[in-house]
Amino acid sequence: MKKTNIAVLVSGGGTNLQALIDAEKAGIIRSGSIKLVVSNNKDAYALTRAKNNSIDTRVVLRRDYENSHDFEAALIGVLKEADIDMIVLAGFMSILSPDFITEFRDRMINVHPSLIPSFCGKGFYGLHVHEAALEYGVKVTGATVHFVNEIPDGGKIILQKAVEVQEGDTPEVLQRRVMEQAEWIILPQATEMVAAQLAERK
Ligand code: GAR
């Protein structure tokens, strides 16, 4: 069976990208293959992780385009050029338009560092999510992998995993625990689930 061609979209450190790369090497991801890493930040360490693993990279900067329509057209261009079937948003800090989402409907997933529907939607990204969780005083948080639709963090949930908040947690400490105990586990698992479905249709 043909494998699903996966692109990972990133903006920062890329620890989730690393988890995906490691999972492909370990055979946890076996129905798909990471063909391309696209960053909207030229300094993203995720790009180095991709290069270290001989994965093609592209940088597409919003500021190089007059408007977000042209920026997204450029993104779609690089994805089509690489014959991408599936997109994984792994710390990609830019909200995509309904047109882009339509182009990749049911073929694009995202990892979010909370148990959706808590602490999600506009403004909830990265460390802010964990700051909000600690401020609220929740005792359990976690991570969610979901399909991307027009509602920020509102698409159908694929996998979730709970993580305990501990006394004295800082946002940074909690972020790390959520990554280690949830994100780096469920993102590769969900990627394989969706890649397997798409590979059947190839
Ligand atoms: C991850 O915690 C991811 O869940 C979060 O950004 C971090 C990226 O880290 N994404 C969001 O908040 C999206 N709303 P990474 O670059 O090390 O994978």
Task: Tell me what the structure shows.
The protein has 202 residues and is of the alpha/beta class. The protein has a single domain, classed as Formyl transferase, N-terminal domain (Rossmann fold), CATH 3.40.50.170. It has six helices and seven strands. Strands 3-2-1-4-5-6-7 form a seven-stranded mixed β-sheet, with helices on both faces. Strand 2, helix 2 and strand 3 form a beta-alpha-beta unit. The longest helix has 31 residues. The termini are close together. Bound molecules: glycinamide ribonucleotide. Glycinamide ribonucleotide (GAR) binds next to helix 1, strand 5 and helix 6.
Chain-wise SSE layout:
Blueprint: E1 4-10, H1 15-26, E2 32-39, H2 45-52, E3 56-59, H3 68-81, E4 86-89, H4 98-103, E5 108-112, H5 127-136, E6 140-147, E7 157-164, H6 171-201
Parallel strand pairs: 1-2, 1-4, 2-3, 4-5
Antiparallel strand pairs: 5-6, 6-7
Residues 10, 12-16, 46, 90-91, 111-113, 125-126, 129, 179, 183 line the site of glycinamide ribonucleotide.
CATH class membership = Alpha Beta
Rounded to the nearest angstrom, the distance between the terminal CA atoms is 8 Å
Q: How many domains, in number, for the residues?
A: 1
User: What value does the average pLDDT take?
Assistant: 97
Q: What is the assigned CATH homologous superfamily?
A: Formyl transferase, N-terminal domain
Residues in helices, as a percent range: 40-55%
Please give the radius of gyration in angstroms: 16 Å
**Spans of at least 5 consecutive residues with low confidence:** none
Give the overall shape. globular
**What is the N-to-C succession of helices and strands?**
EHEHEHEHEHEEH
CATH architectural designation: 3-Layer(aba) Sandwich
Which ligands are bound? glycinamide ribonucleotide
**Percent range for β-strand residues:** 15-25%
